[in-house]
Amino acid sequence: MSRLNRITTKAGDGGTTRLGDGTEVQKDHPRVEAMGTVDELNSALGILLAGSEPELPATVYAALAAVQHDLFDLGSELAVPGSPLFPDAALADVEAAAEALNADLPPLAEFVLPGGSPATAACHLARTICRRAERRLITLGHLSDTELRPELGRYLNRLSDLLFICCRCIQRGQHLPELQWDRDRRSTDEDAR
């Protein structure tokens, strides 16, 4: 079965687009913003998975590959208002993956700077896009005519946690130190003068 046989339709040239239920909305509508940011997050994960496979622990790769499918489900639910297309099990899966991956990590004494290896940096970027997707979802939820299932926001919140844990796992898997914030760096420099 062919779902998309015509890509260039010119229908959106006037600044509008159609949702999955046929509703026409402006392309900068909060719903489209949320959908677009979820898509951007999925693309960032695609870059991470495509370019860093040798650098990623197999457990991280498997967890994030599954997340890509979840994000398509989440985007589908946003695109078809009122249709529960996002599976409830996805939230439990992300929580389980985060717990399993975090189990072997040492506790943190300080905040971690985004960076490290290229794969770690790409994962941090995906984490920050995930946080933005969560904010866009919250903005959409403030509209008086919008009802969103709370599972969507919970999923993005847990996913950002999972992505942070994945950053730590990637860095550790490459036997590289974590870049931790040095909150005292300026006072140490000034004391030495």
What can you see in these coordinates?
This protein is mainly alpha-helical and 193 residues long. 60% of the residues lie in helices and 3% in strands. It has helices spanning 30-52, 58-79, 89-102, 118-141, 150-173, 185-192; strands at 16-18, 24-26. A two-stranded antiparallel sheet has the order 1-2. The model has no long low-confidence stretch (mean pLDDT 89).
Summarize the structure.
The protein has helices at 30-52, 58-79, 89-102, 118-141, 150-173, 185-192; strands spanning 16-18, 24-26. The chain has 193 residues and is mainly alpha-helical. The protein has one domain (27-103, 110-179): Hypothetical Protein Ta1238, Chain: A (Up-down Bundle).
Task: Give me the secondary-structure topology.
Layout: E1 16-18, E2 24-26, H1 30-52, H2 58-79, H3 89-102, H4 118-141, H5 150-173, H6 185-192
Antiparallel strand pairs: 1-2
How far apart are the first and last residues' alpha carbons, in Å? 72 Å
Oligomeric form: single chain
Q: What pattern of helices and strands is seen along the backbone?
A: EEHHHHHH
CATH architecture: Up-down Bundle
Q: At the first level of CATH, what is the class? A: Mainly Alpha
Largest sheet: 2 strands, antiparallel
Estimate the mean pLDDT confidence: 89
For this structure, what is the CATH homologous superfamily? Cobalamin adenosyltransferase-like
Radius of gyration: 19 Å
Helix content: 55-70%
Provide the low-confidence segments as ranges.
none
- What spatial form do the alpha-carbon principal axes imply? elongated
Category from helices, strands and their pairing: mainly alpha
How are strands sequenced across the largest beta sheet?
Answer: 1-2
Please count the helical segments: 6
